[in-house]
Amino acid sequence: MSERIGHAPAVLNSTVGDVEGEGVMQFRARLRAADWSFWVPLAATVVALVFVVMSLVDPQWIESLFGESPDAGSGEAEWWITAVAVGVAAVAFIITRWRWRSIRVA
């Protein structure tokens, strides 16, 4: 038995559970180092997800918000916007994640 009794494995000694340790400091440094190529896709993800939530809460939100009925009240326009928003959110999330992982902090 090579493990010593009473010692946690190396995985548990990482910064995962360290609240004010190096992990949080590195997270904050990454946020400060992030430029527009991170924040723009993140904002696109949030806006797209707002459209998705609006369509789930009120399937005819365009009529409620603007007083216009581009689809004669069927809700089809909102669901097309939602479908496009889901695609945009997925792509923007992938770009955001990629940019987050590429941020290097000294």
Runs in which pLDDT lies below 50 for 5 or more consecutive residues are 7-15
Helix content: 55-70%
Strand-residue proportion = under 5%
Head-to-tail CA distance between termini: 39 Å
How many helices in DSSP terms?
Answer: 4
**Tell me about the biggest sheet?**
none
Order of helix and strand elements from N to C terminus: HHHH
Q: How many beta-strand elements?
A: 0
Would you mind describing this structure in some detail?
The chain is mainly alpha-helical. 63% of the residues lie in helices and 0% in strands. Helix 2 packs antiparallel against helix 4. About 8% of the residues have low confidence. The two termini are 39 Å apart. It has a domain of 71 residues. It is elongated, with a radius of gyration of 22 Å.
Topology:
Blueprint: H1 22-33, H2 36-57, H3 61-66, H4 76-102
What attributes characterize this protein structure?
about 110 residues, mainly alpha, 4 helices, elongated
Summarize the structure.
This protein is mainly alpha-helical. It has helices at 22-33, 36-57, 61-66, 76-102. The chain contains four helices and no strands.
